[in-house]
Amino acid sequence: MPKSATRHAKSVSLQGEYNAKYDKLTIAMARRPNSPSQEQLTAAELAELRCKLEIMPRHELEIFYKATHNACALRVRLPSPRLIQELVQAWKTLRARGHRETVNGRWPVA
Fold this sequence. Notes:
By secondary structure, this protein is an all-alpha fold. It has helices at residues 3-23, 43-55, 58-73, 81-101.
């Protein structure tokens, strides 16, 4: 056998060995531990939070948003689903309120 054919045969066998070895690996998603502090908000709690956020003055809503954002950003671990839900609801309320407070796409001049 020529030298190049031997090299090709070795690379094919090594590649086959590599594929056989790593095809058996399964990758699973990391799961959160089930603890009371990492629960999700129920539909009723989410609706209640949405109502509270909608009646808040804008500056208090911004403070709430910044506090939840900082709580999510400053954690070593992933933030809890409850905290993410609060952040998303505050963001949605701020965004909706921002659109309502604009006049023809511009902020009103005080």
